[in-house]
């Protein structure tokens, strides 16, 4: 059955891979984006997830085109790395506002229709950094770790209405964002990965589409690391 799927931050990287994976399964997929251009084959809705009014407008546009959102993937996120002792407070706030509070805004809006329909899937994109930590990313790690507590609490709230909420925690993934890292830093990270390589975006997408599938109907409040084993034990 074709469903209405919304992927925030879905115009590149992991978000785009997730959107394409749902499209390949026959779903009606929309993506939000803040900059750049959306892929021609997807419904693109410009939206800054730090602005509640833009989130509301984006949902209205998606609902008009595809119907109420049945699967939400909260993927939009930013990084502003730096050591804590030199980190401006606005960098800490901006990362939490986008990565954590942005997920709050879109999940709150999506949950309305899901609760009425008594079905739905919400997948939050966290990070292996939330589990293992990373120097220079206190703001990012805090925002992504916050998604775990947020998602598990929301899972308990929505479970009586047959809505599941799960968290996927990717490790190092081959995207434009990671390509900008120095080669030496990439080698250092890969050396900590038991499988010895970075993930491909499609591998993250497989975990997300599984959690949104009928086969995952009895999974909620789970944190699924897709990181080659880098965060095992955390």
TrEMBL record:
Gene3D superfamilies: NAD(P)-binding Rossmann-like Domain. Keywords: Oxidoreductase. GO terms for molecular function: oxidoreductase activity. SUPFAM superfamilies: NAD(P)-binding Rossmann-fold domains (SSF51735). It comes from the Bacteria. Belongs to the short-chain dehydrogenases/reductases (SDR) family. This is Beta-ketoacyl-ACP reductase. It comes from Streptomyces echinoruber. The lineage of its organism: Bacteria, Bacillati, Actinomycetota, Actinomycetes, Kitasatosporales.
């Amino acid at each position: 059955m074709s469903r209405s799927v919304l992927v925030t931050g879905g115009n590149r990287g992991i978000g785009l891979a997730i959107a394409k994976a749902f499209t390949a399964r026959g779903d009606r997929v929309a993506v939000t984006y803040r900059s750049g251009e959306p892929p021609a084959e997807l419904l693109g809705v410009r939206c800054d997830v730090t602005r509640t009014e833009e989130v509301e407008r984006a949902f209205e546009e998606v609902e008009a085109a595809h119907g109420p959102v049945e699967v939400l993937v909260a993927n939009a996120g930013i990084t502003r790395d730096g050591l804590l002792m030199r980190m401006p407070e606005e960098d800490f706030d901006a990362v939490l506002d986008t990565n954590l509070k942005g997920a709050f805004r879109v999940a709150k809006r999506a949950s309305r229709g899901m609760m009425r329909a008594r079905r739905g899937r919400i997948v939050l994109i966290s990070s292996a950094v939330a589990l293992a930590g990373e120097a220079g990313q206190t703001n990012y790690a805090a925002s992504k770790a916050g998604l775990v507590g947020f998602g598990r609490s929301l899972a308990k709230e929505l479970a009586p209405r047959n809505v599941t909420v799960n968290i996927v925690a990717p490790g190092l993934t081959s995207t434009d964002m990671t390509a900008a890292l120095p080669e030496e830093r990439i080698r250092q990270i890969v050396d900590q990965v038991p499988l010895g390589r970075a993930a491909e975006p499609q591998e993250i997408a497989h975990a997300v589409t599984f959690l949104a599938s009928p086969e995952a109907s009895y999974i909620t409040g789970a944190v699924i690391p897709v990181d080659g084993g880098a965060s095992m034990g955390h």
